[in-house]
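Students often ask what a holo structure prediction actually looks like on paper. The answer is less mysterious than it sounds. You provide the chain, you provide the ligand, and the output is a string of discrete structure tokens encoding the 3D arrangement of the protein together with NDP.
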Amino acid sequence: MSKVLVIGAGGVGSVAVHKMAMNADIFSHITLASRTKSKCDAIAASVRQRTGVAIDTAQLDADDVPATVALLKAVRPALVVNLALPYQDLNIMDACLEAGVNYLDTANYEPREEAKFEYSWQWAYQDRFRDAGLMALLGSGFDPGVTSVFATYTRKHLLDRIDTLDILDCNGGDTGLPFATNFNPEINLREVTAPSRHWENGQWIEGPALSHKQVFDFDQVGPKNMYLMYHEELESLAKFYPEIRRIRFWMTFGDSYLKHLEVLENTGMTRIEPMMFQGREIIPIEFLKALLPEPASLGPITRGKTNIGTIATGEKGGKARTVYVNNVCDHEEAYAETGNQAVSYTTGVPAMIGAALMLTGQWTGAGVFNMEQLDPDPFMDMLNRHGLPWKVRDLDAPLAF
Ligand code: NDP
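The corresponding structure tokens follow.
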């Protein structure tokens, strides 16, 4: 029986809190805090209506470390689940250290002024968390998160050695809107406009953003164009699996999304550098975010499925083998269960699972951990039992380049 404090009342926070309430034997007391308290209260009302569980809510600016410490001291949770934005990661980690509370997130720290997507800042907290006897679990979403657990499971049970690993992220969902991002627009646009990068023979190979594509026929979705991209789990996979010769990440995008993105980029709307406009400083991508639909509002209008998985090549028992591990998640089913579409669902459920494993002592340790460092079996088991079932399939051939 454990108390948890969830920070961030977006789509991901909403799913995580709903799923925690459905597992009240593990999460005995839930507090949801965010910048806008009315969003926490709306989620609390939905949780109560769907599950009968009452949760507490609080207003919090998580960039204000003393305010977060004060809330932690008042609530006294065993764990903070950070589902705000990557900008808050270090401030929340600092507050956790000061208040003596464990920490979990789903996205690595990002400085506002530069799109980096790297773990260095959070890995630098290793000694402080270890010395305090606290655990920080980084990246317990789907990607990063489940994709690293799939790779770890593959290495533990399906292959004696992994030679290549491809992560395939397909969102076959359709909102009917000409342009919308399915998670926080600012973070999403920073991610897709960054140069592509993959790991090969011990080094990063960089290329222009969204310039390399291939078609892949996704189970229950159909053929889609997927594009080579950089994604943050590549860094932890390369660190913890030096045996893997090549690691790549692919994401599907529709032509309409890319057309809009090209125009927005060419007009400067995706820039993250501040500029002066009518006497005040604005950041173009923040202004654009304000114009785009909130991801949490897409739930009722999204149809279709997501299909995310890993294809690994290597050897098992002396024979070459290629294995595909993946999950398919239906947007409408996710919405019916939690009031949120599948992209929030596929992130919020793994956040709940990581939290459950920490609170029940199945995943323990002192220091900063990535998903690759922990036993995949209880996590894979919970995915099957909490709405994200996965399949393993042998493929005849590896993915082409
Ligand atoms: P949203 O933008 O929908 O929600 C973010 C929430 O955080 C909002 O409620 C926002 O408040 C709140 N917030 C922002 N700044 C602060 C602050 N300073 N203090 C307190 N609360 C704050 O995002 P999502 O729910 O889509 O995503 C949440 C996180 O999940 C992000 O970090 C995202 O990168 C990550 N993610 C990870 C994925 C994975 O697979 N690993 C996939 C998808 C997302 P307000 O409402 O006032 O703006």
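The chain has a mean pLDDT of 95.
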